[in-house]
Amino acid sequence: MNIDQLRERWADPALTVLTVLLVIMMFVISPLQALGFLHSRCPSWCSRCCWSAASS
């Protein structure tokens, strides 16, 4: 199986998965974050994080 066959076989499923993830993030996770139900936390290595200035 060469690269063209792999690309042909997995192109549509990969796009489908990415589309589903994008829809979930846009219409489920983002509204929940906006309402305050989900809190995103910045990693400790993130020095430009908006929360790092507020917490210090």
Task: Walk me through the structure.
This protein is mainly alpha-helical and 56 residues long. The protein has 2 helices and no strands. The chain has helices at 3-35, 50-55. The model has no long low-confidence stretch (mean pLDDT 78).
Q: What's this model, at a glance?
A:
The protein has 56 residues and is mainly alpha-helical.
Based on the model shown, name its key terms.
single chain; 56 residues; mainly alpha; 2 helices; elongated
Outline the biggest β-sheet: none
Mean pLDDT: 78
Radius of gyration: 18 Å
Fraction in beta strands: under 5%
Annotation, overall tally of beta strands: 0
Global shape: elongated
What proportion of the residues is helical, as a percent range?
A: 55-70%
Low-confidence stretches: none
Q: Could you tell me how far the N terminus lies from the C terminus, measured between alpha carbons in angstroms?
A: 55 Å
Report the total helices: 2
The helix/strand order is: HH
- Class of secondary structure makeup: mainly alpha
Strand-helix topology:
Elements: H1 3-35, H2 50-55
